[in-house]
Protein: DNA-binding transcriptional regulator, MerR family
Amino acid sequence: MMGVTMRIGELATKSGVSVRALRYYEEQGLLAAGRSDSGQRHYPEPAVDRVQLIQMLYGAGLSSRTIAELLPCVDAKVSTPESQARLAAERARIDEQITALIHTRDRLDAVIASTVDPANGCTVVHD
Amino acid sequence: MMGVTMRIGELATKSGVSVRALRYYEEQGLLAAGRSDSGQRHYPEPAVDRVQLIQMLYGAGLSSRTIAELLPCVDAKVSTPESQARLAAERARIDEQITALIHTRDRLDAVIASTVDPANGCTVVHD
DNA sequence: CTTGCCTCTGACGTCAACGTCAGGTCCTAG
DNA sequence: CTAGGACCTGACGTTGACGTCAGAGGCAAG
Structure:
């Protein structure tokens, strides 16, 4: 079967991140890579999902260090009280972020409404 | 009346940001400041709200440049087709961010569930 | 065997939103 | 009038997640 493993370029295109980023993830202990005799990295298919999970967590504002602390507990499925606390804490952080963003969006909606509504002393300029 | 205007330190404590940040906001054109004869900045009360709005927008991932482009259209309440488009675009971006965060939270919930549920081959370790 | 693309390891560059320090001025309480 | 805190303007430092470049080796095609 072909494609049971892939090299870094293919993983990059499949997961939508740069080659540099993948090397960085490895450096940060987020993504393990096998090596060929000549030292080239190779990855199994599930690495694509893993990279996308990493991207999600970055997107949620987590740092490499935090992600590095969470991922092992995802992999090993081993639950210590500490890891549970970490997961819960990050979940809570994301929750707060969502709340804040909704708040911000509402604020922006108010601004949009005021700039659209001429009753607010708003001047609408057309091209 | 006292406190109709305030100096930078007071604004900093009232709005919960650092003095340095306030100077930076001014530098970026986000926050105007009056000057005393000796060159000291003074701000009116509404500056507190303004700073908090700025913080909200930063919190939503907007850059200084983007905020600088949005704020005038908040102040002047002048609506050009371009400014409407900008506002709508940023609102949309925030919406996408919220969606992504909810997605991430769900993912994290799944992880939490799997680490908590022994049926998933998870090992629970107590102190 | 060579051409050309992919990959490797350093290692320095970048960018934003400030932090921090230096050296000097201002202002208010006592 | 003087001490000490608040303020001023540069200007350099910081941090994270990569970008980018240099120099060298690897690999499938022709």
